[in-house]
């Protein structure tokens, strides 16, 4: 393919822009919405909430006071005080004669109910203390406001009472005030305070607005062309497909960036001059200075480029505008959690987070608005976003060049409930579906599974959550069981090598884990789980443990991860392919993620790699099952036999010679894995060259 | 006088798709035919016979699995840009840019074809006059009738004056009056010396237009020749009877 010609790219971009500008929907989302949104959000919503609050403050809420101390409490707290005539009594009205106070509170007839006991008047007159019982409804606005007023009023009454007692005993007021805070000074400037209050929300809104303003034009320029029947004729024009997609990309990018700039301008205008002129007190002092605007703009460029590329990619996959619009929700589901990180308190823009797309952008915006963005982080965020945008654009161009995606057949007419035609192994999409479904099942089915009995829990989780969905899906998809689950006799040599691998892998893995992450934290959900397992291991016979905690999970998980998922990832478009390195890595990654706790991820990933290799090299599931079961069994038995046993010495860093055992294990593991790789290479050569060399 | 060399040469064309279930579908299975300048060749066959796929390969939208196809001397695989420059293409599903006027659409395509800017305005006016589009050429296509839109489509296909036209069921979904316009357009194009490949499953249309037909079924040729030749070999007197006789073997 020759390099794209700039003139053609420009021609396509100009035509797409002209069309976009004549489209009311694009104009509304990209140009009108941002201009309206910020004034609405800031000027209308802010004061509206403030005014409602103020109204609740001014309104009088009914408070029920019951019990023998009623009169004394009302006089001390709710009535004007003779000691402090300047102080306003709380805007609360005391009521009585309510038959069922609890019911009245629940129905909202009274906002608070205060029960008094005996001797309240005496306590107030003397130096005593009387108990009160306060009933409130924290789910009701009026009750919340009444409670706040009550707290302030009772605090003032307490102060007055204490002052009287001190005076009576001739004690100085400072007796009860060893510290007196004279003044609290805020280091933050007005801009920083405003940035802190509104920066998170504005960062989030800005990112989401940029996404939505890229999506609609992107849907129009590719899926829209397919749907209206203009794509085919465009492809017959004498220009490269890369030129077409780049031209379309530039047009979408132009709309996105225009929208982003308008968003920013509208935000700046709303928060600066507009707010000032309105004189609304609650958002006074809010302003975004021009440097901040420039910084945001600098990052909006690559962010818009990233979103435009993602949107065009999805639009290319779709056959119609409707289908493309269905992709918007998953895209938002992907972007939202990454962007929502900004509202989580105490999240710093660390180097790791600075490399996480979207999240790094919202944190960049937030920090910029409070004037606390470090130049190093800023550059890292910019670089990552540019790289992500370039990657997304590359992927989108590749997608556009494939005739399969440009000319996908009609949408599956069978729907969800018609079984698809048989194929040797399921598609990669089916593998992702199975994985997502089993994660969801863990979440939703866990309350239904036995929770007290860990053994029964392991048994039911493995059979019902891990194995059953996998077998059911394979049956539904009419996948060939032999090919999908590799139910072939293994090569004897690889099966033999599975034994040393299964025995040494946990030793090496444990060492790596300890070296990299230290001992398991003494708290948290993972620690609790580990403790539960220790107890289980103490209480059960070793045969039961080996069968249910070691062998059964090995069997079930191998069926799913080295069977269904590895085969699906490696099957290619027609389901006939052989799994390669990418399939092994992909299945190992899902295997790791399935183990939920981040503490386990690295270890299970490495084990998953080795198991995948065994499976691919032997063309059978069984060596993986053997190694996996041995891996589990040696850990379980080491724990069962306890300190002092030779098996435990392999895993216990405090045991004598542990380093030596780890070293020997690592050597055995390396040699065994090397041997498996060698056998695999040789068998592939034989396959590629069936004549062989002897 | 010898016949002019063919403008379209298709030789042993195959195209295999993979269905979503992984099975192989042979959409085009060894098709060969030619089409000379000033000749209309009809590809005749039921839906799913492989006509559209074959024409899409000729238009360089799809790539052949094997076999060769040449348009005005250019190979579809080795010189797709050369093919595209010498080709006008319209299919039943071809639409128009709803938010552009006819003049804008024609100008856009003329520029995509790399025509000299000085020539473009004159050529666009010429095509607009040829298809009698003067009344509506400056209205956006979204506000045009079905017939007017079809004219935009046809005008777009000839704006760069291609020697070869590929028309994939150009009258499908059109009412009789508009279909009539299309038929006249095709005849005029033949008069102008273009080589025209036309696919259809409307027998009367083929009888009216085609100099030769190729009967396609399950991706391969059942018979080909002029209409009288076809009637003679099948012992029938109209195209419909001839077709069914061929298809039923």
General description of the model:
The complex is a heterodimer of chains A (694) and B (249). Chain A is mainly alpha-helical. Helix content of chain A is 70%, strand content 3%. Chain A has helices at 6-21, 24-58, 70-78, 101-107, 120-125, 141-168, 190-221, 223-228, 231-236, 241-278, 290-317, 321-326, 328-340, 351-354, 359-369, 375-401, 403-406, 428-445, 454-476, 481-485, 492-517, 524-539, 542-570, 581-594, 598-618, 622-641, 646-651, 658-688; strands at residues 61-66, 92-95, 112-116, 132-135. A 4-stranded mixed beta sheet of chain A has the order 2-1-3-4, with helices on both faces. In chain A, β1 (61-66), α3 (70-78) and β2 (92-95) form a beta-alpha-beta unit. Chain A starts with 5 loop residues before the first helix and ends in a 6-residue tail after the last helix. By secondary structure, chain B is α/β, with parallel strands linked by helices. Chain B is 37% helix and 26% strand. The longest helix of chain B is centred in the C-terminal third of the chain and has 16 residues, at 176-191. The radius of gyration of chain B is 18 Å and the shape is globular. The mean pLDDT of chain B is 89. The A-B interface holds A 8, 11-12, 15, 18-19, 22-23, 228-230, 232-239, 403, 407, 409, 412, 420-424, 573-576 and B 18-23, 56, 59-63, 81-82, 84-85, 87, 89-91, 93-100, 104, 108-109, 111-114, 140, 153, 156-157.
